[in-house]
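Long-time lurker, finally posting.

We've been working with Adenylate kinase (Streptomyces carminius) and I want a structural starting point before designing mutants. I don't trust myself to interpret raw outputs, so I'm hoping someone here can both generate the structure tokens and explain anything notable. Sequence follows.
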Amino acid sequence: MRIVLVGPPGAGKGTQAAYLAKNLSIPHISTGDLFRANISQGTPLGQKAQEYMRAGQLVPDEVTIGMARGRMAEPDAADGFLLDGFPRNLSQAEALDGILRGTGTKLDAVLDLEVPEDEVVKRIAGRRMCRNDSTHIFHVEYTPPKTEGVCDVCGGELYQREDDSEDTVRKRLEVYHTETEPIIDYYKAQELVVTISALGKVDEVTRRAMEALGRSA
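Top reply, 14 upvotes:
Generated this for you. Predicted structure of Adenylate kinase:
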């Protein structure tokens, strides 16, 4: 299967992408991983991306598209893939259509993870990270530490990242509504969109997603 995963920040795309890719036996291709791999390997596209990032500028669509095209051409993606974070806007969606036409393939589905805006804010703004180890993550409501402000694992200080403040989250949501949401209508016109609720436990959402894709979890 060839799937695009969309949803607002805080919808759990990364978590669901990993589970779905494993269940469907296809590679999970995320924009973040593409950037990290190209930059660490020093590819021409990675070098271009790093130049823009160092200058505090957005990486142009053509660079992101080039990275995605290269990754989808790798052998493990021959029979399918799950795209997470790409396409991010209409220009990228149209480019993806062109890439697939060029290989004689097409998307099977665009999975839209739906979460109420207030829930997104609650999920992200409630996160607390450990200063000693960023993999130690807590939530003030869902997974609170035993002692407020203290990491259960190592005793480090818990803090809220600047990116996780409510104001920043709402700005990120505005960007999502403006830039990314239009691709949902674009794909609806192609009758590719399946929308599911991303509320509930991780395994419940995964089961919902697999059923929407016509597969059993």
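Before you design anything, note these points.
The first strand starts at residue 2 and ends at 6.
The chain is about 45% helix and 15% strand.
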